[in-house]
Write a structure and sequence with these properties.
Number of domains: 1
Number of strands: 0
Shape: elongated
Order of helices and strands: HHH
Helix content: over 70%
Number of helices: 3
Distance between the termini: 40 Å
Strand content: under 5%
Oligomer: single chain
Radius of gyration: 13 Å
């Protein structure tokens, strides 16, 4: 049972990280800022995603 829950949590974190990276790349920020935000989300997935959610650049709508 624990493996399935951890697998589902990992999958959800993967989807959220991909969504964050796509949103970062589509934003109007400078290239350097985009690289730093992407690295932050990739290196610290949960913490990076939460911080990006509140403070990060957003994609154009």
């Amino acid at each position: 049972m624990g493996i399935e829950i951890a697998g589902l949590g990992g999958f959800i974190m993967l989807v959220l990280s991909i969504w964050a990276i796509v949103s970062i790349v589509g934003s109007n920020s400078s290239t350097g800022a985009k690289v730093i935000w992407c690295l932050f989300v990739l290196i610290l997935p949960l913490l990076g995603f939460i911080i990006w959610l509140f403070f990060g650049p957003r994609a154009r709508r």
